[in-house]
Amino acid sequence: MQFDLFDSTQNKILDAKTYGEFKEALARSNCTQCALSESRSHIVVDRGNPSAKVLMIGEGPGENEDLQGKAFVGRAGQLLDELMKNLGFDTNRDSLIINVVKCRPPENRSPKQEEVGACAPFLKKQIELVRPKIILLLGAVALKHVIKDKTEFSMGEEAGTFFERPEFPGVKFMVLYHPAFILRDPRKKPVMIEHLKRFKAYWDSINTEPS
């Protein structure tokens, strides 16, 4: 009965006509579609501006995100904010940040396939409602779960290059190192900064185009 009850709730979430309606419905849903619901404090929908042209997609909430109910507010998020701010990009104003899964995996492990599958309709709906011009994929987990045929790849080869996909018309993608990886290996920080500069140059160019 609980699963059937959630089915109607899920339909309400996925039938939302605006991003605000979607966010409120998902945050209040008490989703139990996977085991991550058993240990979470909050469903973490996003952080930032759903009207922005840039959508960032990470892996999943960490401890701070789970406690606050906001995406990328821990050390990794703070580093991302700092790197972007240095380039004149305000992550809260100029982007929306979301995750592949909306509940924290225990011990910050990578989400399992069934957990990603349970959240996939919500991720798809977010992309549809936001209609971004640019999607930044933060880390290997985001890349392999958003771009389904990317099963074997090297982050060194993928990161920092723009590409397009037919299933996402009108969207430019760029893969970035996850900021948590930069915290673990600061030697990659200069490389990520160069990638961010490349992204920022393109973002500046589409912001000067006539609407």
Précis, in short:
By secondary structure, the chain is an alpha/beta fold. It has helices spanning 2-14, 19-27, 63-68, 75-85, 91-94, 113-130, 140-146, 155-158, 179-184, 189-207; strands at residues 47-48, 54-58, 95-99, 134-138, 162-163, 172-176. It is built from 10 helices and 6 strands.
Description:
- This protein is of the alpha/beta class.
- The protein has helices at 2-14, 19-27, 63-68, 75-85, 91-94, 113-130, 140-146, 155-158, 179-184, 189-207, and strands spanning 47-48, 54-58, 95-99, 134-138, 162-163, 172-176.
- The termini are far apart.
- 46% of the residues lie in helices and 11% in strands.
- The chain has a six-stranded mixed sheet with strand order 1-3-2-4-6-5, with helices on both faces.
- Class computed from helices, strands and strand pairing: alpha/beta
Shape: globular
Helix content: 40-55%
Q: Please tell me how large the radius of gyration is.
A: 17 Å
Read across the widest sheet, the strand sequence of neighbours is 1-3-2-4-6-5
Largest sheet, in brief, is: 6 strands, mixed
Report the uncertain regions.
none
Q: What's the count of strands? A: 6
Mean pLDDT over the full residue set: 94
C-alpha termini separation: 49 Å
- Count of helices? 10
- The H/E string reads HHEEHHHEHEHHEEHH
- The proportion of strand residues reads 5-15%
Question: What brief labels describe this structure?
Answer:
6 strands, six-stranded mixed beta sheet, alpha/beta, 46% helix
